[in-house]
User: What shape does this take?
Amino acid sequence: MANKLLSEMGLPKSIANIFAARNLITAKDVLSLTEFELMELLDVDLAVVASAVAHISEITCPPYQTALSLLEQRVQNERMAGHLPTCLKGLDNALCGGIPFGVVTELVGPAGIGKTQFCLKLSLLASLPSSYGGLDGSVIYIDTESKFSSRRMIEIGYNSFPEAFHAEGMAQEMAGRILVLRPTSLSEFTDSLQKIKVSLFQHGVKLLIIDSMAALLAGEGVQGPQRQHSLGWHISFIKSVAEFSRIPVVVTNQVRSQSRDETSHYSFQELSRVDRPEATTNLDSHLVAALGIHWAHAVSIRLVFESRSGQRFIKLAKSPLSPPLAFPFNITSSGISLLNDDGVEMPGPEIHTIHCQGHSSIINVGSEMMH
Assistant: This one.
């Protein structure tokens, strides 16, 4: 606004001509000088200068807004930006419509908990024709752990959208819209990202999935400052892809075990020695996201997948608009299914804690990963 031209501000012609004659072209040129400096430069009296400065300031400075109006504007922008519905009613309601466009959404949890199942269902929903509630687009699925299963995806499709998938040729058409890339190294992954950004519009891509980023870094053995530098570059690039293309970008993250003496990822999660549940077994409450706190701050939405007392949960751990909620779920032939749509509000550190009771074989996956 400071570079707005004075000629476009509706000033009286007499003072506008004087400004132009003294080579004062923009609002910044005028507002950078004091009223007394303007009086001397323009050779006019103080009242004329004050009136002109007030007029320019009113047009240049943005109007004040209340906290309520800012919140309402943000909610409206979120709704207008678009969402990919997950077909999980409670989660979609909490996310104001589903997985938002233009930002990075992270799924974090132990192996086998349901993250890839969630990604397969999202792939179907993005490629499904709009007449069936989909985005009618292509999907780029970067599968770093070779977990993508075409057979399982088609099974989910037949059970979730029987009308669409029983139409002749629909299953083949849907499968043909999902491009699966399997980079074997971090350098291959980086090359793939750079090529993807160029081709997003050309191929009508409506969803990008990276499953998973943590596996690539673990395979490379990248540690210390080099790891942080690589993570910083990749998350910045992935965010730029989301913002540039205005599509949902979903990235999965693994977990690693956390030693009892290790500093907590989040300062607000730290417990005093008195409050710390010493009796809890080492198969529970000692898991943290593998990619660390810098990555966590970079994503806009974080969904934590966990298991407690034999029950799986999706926890909405981070969202700019939604309360922290936990939804119990099962995995069925049609993919992930919520057991109820209300969710349980879970404020405080518990929403960020990752439980995996009774799955000792999962706990040590990626235990050498450094955050």
Observations:
- The chain has 15 helices and 14 strands.
- The domain at 80-259+285-350 is CATH 3.40.50.300 (Rossmann fold).
- The chain has two domains: 6-60, 80-259+285-350.
- The mean pLDDT is 81.
